Sequence to fold (211 residues):
Amino acid sequence: MAPEEDQLHEHWNQIYSGNPASSLSWYQDHPEHSLRRIQATGIAPSSAAVIDVGGGASKLVDALLAEGYHNPTVLDLAEAGLEIAKRRLGTQAQRASWIAGNILHKDLARNGYNIWHDRAVFHFLINQQLRHDYLNRALHAVRPGGHLIITTFAEDGPGQCSGLPVVRYNLEQLQQQFAPSFSLLSHERELHRTPTGAVQSFLSCHFHRCG
Fold:
């Protein structure tokens, strides 16, 4: 790993190792917003190849398995987050695929997925080169005609998360990051209540891969 990536790796492993998953600001006991957006693609669970980028200890994988999605993939920089999810699922963890690593550098299968879901990873990419690298990873991994679901802090959301700076987006700004390779199908704002009771404003966009 590059020094910066090694520091991020350690940072996120410490976040997961030092706190119960249910206490983390992004925790959702029922990830209904993400599940609904995935279902809105219209792709049947038996045909869906889903990757949850930055999934960590999220319960989205639990919900996907319960809904009959086949072998969803969870990718996260922090092994500690993935291990929490695996322990929670027990033997059901064998029904999912798990990838530890940085999405900007992992060698994902070309056209391996028709649904790419990212709740709160993209907004950590604070310079344009990182965002360009992310777009290239998505273009490599998402099949033509596939779907990209990106959720970031909205323009009135927090300016940082877990001690790290983030980029906040309005609709036009987020749309521009993925055009023209991905076209916008729908968008919505989400107000997320953290475990401490604070309310965070998110923007979620559902894109379709052109070509």
User: Anything to note?
Assistant: The domain at 3-17+36-209 is CATH 3.40.50.150 (Rossmann fold). The beta strands are 50-53, 73-76, 97-100, 113-119, 142-153, 160-161, 164-165, 182-193, 199-209.
